[in-house]
Amino acid sequence: MAEAEVIVRLRTPQRPATAGTTGVLDVGSLLERWFGVTAEPLHPGVDDPALVGWQRVAVPAGVDAEAVATALRGHPAVEAAYVKPPADLP
């Protein structure tokens, strides 16, 4: 189970099958290489260009979620990355 979640917005949304050198595949490679985590679509199966570029990263205990978000913000394909705040209890 993830301890934290990082939300990512790509600058130019691309499908993984067509991703170029600064697209989804490069971001995924950075995540796996540096932190041992992967990104997945926040809205799987959608074709809406406004939603395709959103990704989520489940960050396990022992991995610094803020470091993941900071590294992602430094990637040229990433427009924004932030650690999702915990949900409030009702």
The CATH architecture designation is 2-Layer Sandwich
Count up the domains: 1
Number of beta-strand segments: 4
Helix content: 25-40%
- What would CATH call the class? Alpha Beta
What does this structure look like?
The structure is a single chain. The chain has 90 residues and is an alpha+beta fold. The protein has a single domain (4-83), classed as Alpha-Beta Plaits (2-Layer Sandwich), CATH 3.30.70. 28% of the residues lie in helices and 24% in strands. The protein is built from three helices and four strands. The protein has a four-stranded antiparallel sheet. The longest helix has 12 residues, at 24-35. It is globular, with a radius of gyration of 13 Å. Mean pLDDT is 83; it is low at 15-22.
List the helices and strands and how they pair.
Layout: E1 4-10, H1 24-35, E2 39-41, H2 49-52, E3 54-59, H3 65-73, E4 78-83
Antiparallel strand pairs: 1-3, 1-4, 2-3
